[in-house]
């Protein structure tokens, strides 16, 4: 019997995790729900020892969904679709998985059940939507909707990465240049300055020499300290407490926080809208949306909404009470509930906020770029000035 690792939330709100055996993923989820747990993730534990496993990227999954939807809509049998997609796939890991899925489908397993065996590739959202498509006989439509969702999510992610990559790269280069100047270039000027005596040197030059001496003497320890700090912070922010601290504070950041909040809202509405439009029950849709939110604060708000809906409340009221979602989003969702157009309204909100993210990214880039250039100019210019001030004094004295 296969073994599964799971994460769930108990009735008291405590997060629990562990391993459990079961005939299938659905059977494990059913057992955990019978115990009163809110299941957030269930993954089958691999029995294979793989040293080098190539990761399947999100854009490859969106291409797969798009190709599959086109072939299914054209009347190509499911097994034949899997064979075609597997043959032309360039990722050996993905090609191998698709081959195994084809074998499972040929053996009588449903497509969605076969996908669930590979949670590292196909998310709960993907599997639940495929299951809904199989049940409703609209697999081609569901896969096309999945492809649209994945493409939109990838574009949104790329915009945010693009906005953050440039300043990070430039700032890293600037710090590296300054570190190089202080550690390896400035010591070469010390012999020139020693003849003048440290007391006669200008204050900026004396300070710079002290910093250079410190960096040169403790160069290895500083590098080791930076590596240890980065590693420690990374490990801390992967814990539950650390992740919560990170997500909470990033949303409160003056400029970046606004951008990340818009990204989270766009992702939430796009995911929930896609699930609801595909016929997934609202409670199950909210469960999947919470697990894929990517932010603990947003995920908690969605989970509280799910509990409130189970008790008979509307979606809009608990979202408003959470304080995470703007009034416009709450009002549009309320209108969507009243008119029976919830899925369409959620998609409209997602489209609007994705445009807002695009605008915010352009604005953020236009603000950060001159700030970084000015910062580099001040720092590098200050170092150069501190180096040449004593030389100018020598020239003046000689004159």
Layout of strands and helices, then pairs:
Layout: E1 3-9, E2 15-21, H1 25-34, E3 38-44, H2 58-73, H3 78-88, H4 92-106, H5 111-116, H6 124-136, H7 139-185, H8 190-194, H9 203-217, H10 219-237, H11 240-252, H12 256-277, H13 282-291, H14 296-310, H15 316-322, H16 327-339, H17 342-398
Beta-strand content:
5-15%
The CATH homologous superfamily of the largest domain is termed Type II secretion system (T2SS), domain F
CATH architecture of the largest domain: Up-down Bundle
Given the helix and strand composition, which structural class is it?
mainly alpha
Outline type: elongated
Distinct helical segment count = 17
Q: Average pLDDT across residues?
A: 82
Oligomer classification: single chain
The main sheet orders its strands as 2-1-3
- Sketch the major β-sheet: 3 strands, antiparallel
CATH class of the largest domain reads Mainly Alpha
């Amino acid at each position: 019997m296969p073994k599964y690792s799971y994460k769930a939330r108990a009735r008291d709100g405590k997060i629990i995790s562990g391993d459990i055996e079961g005939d299938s993923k659905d059977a494990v989820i059913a057992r955990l729900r019978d115990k009163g747990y809110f299941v957030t993730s269930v993954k089958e534990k691999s029995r294979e020892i793989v040293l080098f496993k190539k990761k399947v990227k999100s854009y490859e999954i969106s291409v797969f969904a798009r190709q599959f939807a086109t072939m299914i809509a054209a009347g190509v049998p499911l097994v034949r679709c899997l064979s075609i997609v597997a043959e032309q796939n360039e990722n050996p890991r993905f090609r191998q998985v698709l081959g195994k899925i084809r074998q499972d489908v040929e053996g009588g397993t449903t497509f969605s059940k076969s996908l669930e065996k590979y949670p590292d590739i196909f998310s709960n959202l993907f599997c639940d939507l495929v299951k809904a498509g199989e049940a409703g006989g609209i697999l081609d439509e569901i896969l096309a909707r999945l492809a649209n969702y994945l493409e939109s999510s990838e574009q949104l992610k790329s915009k945010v990465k693009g906005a953050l990559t440039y300043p990070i790269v430039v700032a890293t280069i600037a710090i590296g240049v300054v570190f190089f100047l202080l550690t390896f270039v400035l010591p070469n000027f010390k012999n020139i300055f020693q003849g003048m005596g440290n007391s006669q040197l200008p204050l900026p030059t004396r300070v710079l020499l002290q910093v250079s001496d410190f960096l040169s003497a403790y160069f290895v320890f500083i590098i080791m300290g930076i590596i240890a700090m980065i590693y420690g912070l990374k490990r801390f922010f992967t814990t539950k407490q650390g992740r919560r601290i990170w997500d909470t504070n990033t949303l409160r950041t003056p400029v970046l926080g606004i951008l990340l909040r818009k990204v989270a809202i766009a992702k939430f509405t796009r995911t929930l809208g896609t699930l609801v439009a595909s016929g997934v029950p609202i409670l199950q849709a909210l469960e999947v949306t919470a697990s894929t939110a990517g932010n603990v604060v947003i995920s908690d708000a969605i989970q509280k909404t799910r509990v409130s809906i189970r008790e008979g409340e509307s979606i809009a009221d608990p979202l408003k009470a959470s304080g995470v979602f703007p009034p416009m989003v709450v009002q549009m969702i309320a209108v969507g509930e009243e008119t029976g157009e919830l899925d369409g309204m959620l998609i409209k909100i997602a489209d609007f906020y994705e445009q807002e993210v695009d605008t915010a990214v352009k604005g953020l880039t236009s603000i950060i770029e001159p700030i970084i250039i000015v910062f580099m100019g001040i720092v590098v210019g200050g170092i150069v000035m501190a180096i040449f001030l004593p030389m100018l004094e020598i020239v003046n004295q000689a004159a």
